[in-house]
Records
---
Amino acid sequence: MFEPRDCSSSVDAVRDEHAPDALVCDVATDFETLAPAQAEDLGLLVDALEPASYPTEWLPADAPTLLERYASSTFTIGMPGDGSIVWTRQTDPPVVLVKPRIEGSPEPFVEFLVAEALVECGLEVPEQFIGFFEAQYRDLDRAVPFDPNSTYQIAAALYDGWLGVQTREIFAGWHDTHPDLANAWRDAGDRLEDRVSGLSRAVARGETDFADATELACGAIKHGIELPAPFDALDTAAYRDHGPDYAIQWAETTFDALAE
């Protein structure tokens, strides 16, 4: 199920700097959330399993079932929206998991994504947004006028953006030390630029729903792309410093304005 992945020298250097104990593994099957039995197979590779759990009081009554499962004591790795690479600190040492669906992507981009996961893992931040918002997830749920799945998507995007405000400075610093990874980071940003610049118009015309737009805009933050309103307010040092408080204020202000 899990096989150690051979990484480039640049990725190995990033691991040494940010998450020196982390394992990087290819996964045999694709997944959004690993079945508990499969997740527990990681016990064959690591020294210990330490499942994360969170108080049920942090979740609104209509929270998606998968979010309820993640918050419970069930050993849960991976959630919808995580992308092609997942990292977890619920193991000792931590693990970065590369899904098979990434096959066919340009190798430099794959190497960047693995390096990005190692950087995030080294920040020792929560691996899912519920550990970021904590009890304030209920406040976000009240501020977002959409269904529970859209609220989930927006919460995951906002957390991704918060990580991006921090990690992009690291990525930008790779031009001298890891130029191959820096080039992949820049190229990925260049491909997003046109899509991001037209987001506000696409939402206004009904071509893109707000949750999808938030996901795209927040994913672009790590690339330093100029964002249109209202997403540009997330690309700030204030968001980096104030985290969930700022995210909820942004949501309240944004949706109040859209309702007018």
---
Amino acid sequence: MIAIVDYGMGNLMSVEKAFTYLGLNAKIVSKESEIKKAKGVVLPGVGNFGQAIANIKSRGLWQAIKEALAEKPFLGICLGMQLLFEGSEESPESPGFSMFPGKFTLFKGDIKVPHIGWNSVRFIKNSPITSGLDSEEFFYFVHSYRLPFLSAYAPFTLGVSEYHEVFIAAVEYKNVFGFQFHPEKSGKKGLKVLENFGRIVYGNICGY
């Protein structure tokens, strides 16, 4: 079973429906024991970084997520991807899981935020989670905070996008994947991403 973690923030039903449409066994879960039993874990999320961390901790899910990051196929979506990093200027007092280095900051300059809508993502390396996709595809975004694409982040950067600046749109390290965009809202290309994650979970295909 793929566990879709419910910590009170996220597009849970749309993610679950997308997996169900693909014929993959995925379930919304809210207990530590359910995360531990799962073969793979999805951490979705929409909203405030600090509130997300507080919710995860108050519901007793922090340790189970940490353990899943170390040993299972893991997918972070939108805010769920941001939570895998060190933190965000949105909530400086709330450290993330620190699976990846870097802190998210608000888009700079005289531009409209949040960044909402379809935008292209350029994949800069091959990965089992992007199998069957072209090197550049369009996906749906909704976010105000971003991680600029810097050379120091290149080792784990899977894809980049641009909204007045180049920012990181997809990451990968061993069994852990993250997407700033919403694959569950991105039509056939997004479904392909989720299908590939399902293959990684059930076929034990990992990027290492």
---
Amino acid sequence: MQATVKWVDGAMFLAESGSGHTVLMDGPPDHGGRNLAVRPMEMILMGLGGCASFDIVSILKKSRQKVTDCRVELSAERAEGTPSPFTKIHLHFVVTGQALKPSQVERAVNLSATKYCSASIMLEAAGVALSHDFEVVEFEP
């Protein structure tokens, strides 16, 4: 996996993934940015959410669960001062589907957290306290 990040101006950077996709990052005004794009630490948090959600949907589909939507709400705490790495992150999954079994959703969340989500495992190894919970919502057409 590869990526390139190029400085644009101020605190704005353009990142390009090895697969050819680009994303703009910017900083807050008090750090030379114009607040026109996502911040780099927000990208890490969103990447964690994407990685875990991908796992959960995949696991549930393989378990023949009828998933219609999956959303994760992430909340994070960071250390004071500089640097200010994440210290705690909570992931709350809202999984919607038809007759979903809560035990299957719980299993998928646990497997993602402990076995499959590389971002989650990497952050925990770095000392970030991760916690997870979920709710199941019945799909209403």
